[in-house]
Amino acid sequence: MAIAVSCAPKAPPALVGAPKHPDFMFPVAPEGAAPDQAGRLDRGWQYLQLNDLRNADREFSAALKQQATFYPADAAIGYLALARGNDADAMMRFDRALAAEAAYVPALVGRGQALLSMDRVGEALASFEAALAKDGSLADLKGRVEVLRFRATQDMLGRAKAATDGRRWDEAKAAYQQAIAASPDSAFLYRELAAVEQKAGDPSAALDHYRKTVELDANDARSWAAIGGLLEANDDVVGALPAYERARAVDPAEVPDSVLTRVRARAALLKLPAEYRAIPGNPGVSRGEIAALIGIRLDALVARARPRQLIITDLRGHWAQQWITAVARAGIMDPLPNYEFQPGLRVRRGELAMTVSRLLGLVGAAKPEFLKKWQAANVTVSDVPSGHLSYPYVSQAVAAGVMPLAAGNFDLLRNVSGAEALEIIGRIEALARP
């Protein structure tokens, strides 16, 4: 009678020469795996490295048949599919292994290789990076990841640039976002994405990405300047000013002097009282408002005057008290004989001509040739004869181009509007510049 004998699985022949698939990662069995399962995995792997795919398949399938949830066998069959050139089957097997053990490094590496064969570089990179996050000792994989990052970034940058040139904003944004996913610490990618978002009419997203750029690279002058521009466009000059100043500190060419001067002036204006900021819209400015304009806009000119002692009794609590006091002590404007300044009294052009004349005298202290010319002028004014008490002031203000005539008339008794007052002070500012 014949007796059945159970034979141990045949061992593969000894591996001779280099492994046929050295870039495949052996799917290690977890602790507690049955010895015969681990043994079949080892034998199957040896067959695979000999390129004996039929026997490798037999061993891996037997291990999986013994336990359907034995995920190392699924990963091993995934590598077998890669060796056969069947990337889709390989992906399916690696995904099954990862469904059982999401952080299983051999399956993550194999999945990345399958994705790479399918030219899905970004996804392959993500799979490799997940493997590295779990096991940072994989030196060969680190090098591959760096190469892939560069390759993926270059490819996506080319697509992003072409889409940007074609004004296909959504496509360009998607390409830059993919490049950022591949290289999240590259500051310039956020800057380029922000530029596209800005062109596409999404300033909020652009601002966020410019800020991310300078977070990664504090010396990106272009991004600092862009932040300043976006904030200024949104009327946030207080936020725009430090951004512009930072850009200028890195590269003065990024922010013109005129821009910085404008924003500094706007930021300074915001710190001033609301009453001052309302002056441009006033139909008729007051003595206090004129004094404030002079004290703020022409402070350097006021400082040139020799201060005088005087008494003013009606300024306590007034928003412009400090500027009224400075302008009155400089002799540019006078209190009334009763020691009141009457800061709320409307200013007429005749009174303002006297104030302008005194300011021109301070300008002329540094430019005497101009002052002589203004004082020597005999301007013909239809409604102010040369014998009028106000004529010298009017003639000088007109000759200097500060208070021009309208159809030959000066209109001594007309109230001065806020907009007109700003123009007059602006002309004096220009004359006072070195």
Class derived from helix and strand content: mainly alpha
Summed up, the helix count is: 21
How does the major sheet shape up? none
H and E order: HHHHHHHHHHHHHHHHHHHHH
Number of strands: 0
Q: What is the CA-based Rg, rounded?
A: 41 Å
Instruction: Kindly report the average pLDDT value.
Output: 91
In the predicted model, the low-confidence regions spanning at least 5 consecutive residues are: 1-8
Q: What's the helical proportion of residues?
A: 55-70%
Strand content: under 5%
State the shape.
rod-shaped
Distance between the termini: 124 Å
Give an account of the 3D structure:
63% of the residues lie in helices and 0% in strands. With 434 residues, the chain is mainly alpha-helical. α2 (53-66) runs antiparallel to α3 (71-83), α15 (287-297) crosses α17 (321-329) and α18 (349-366) crosses α20.
Produce a short descriptive summary.
By secondary structure, the chain is mainly α.
Name some characteristics of this structure.
mainly alpha, Serine Threonine Protein Phosphatase 5, Tetratricopeptide repeat, rod-shaped, 434 residues, single chain, disordered N terminus
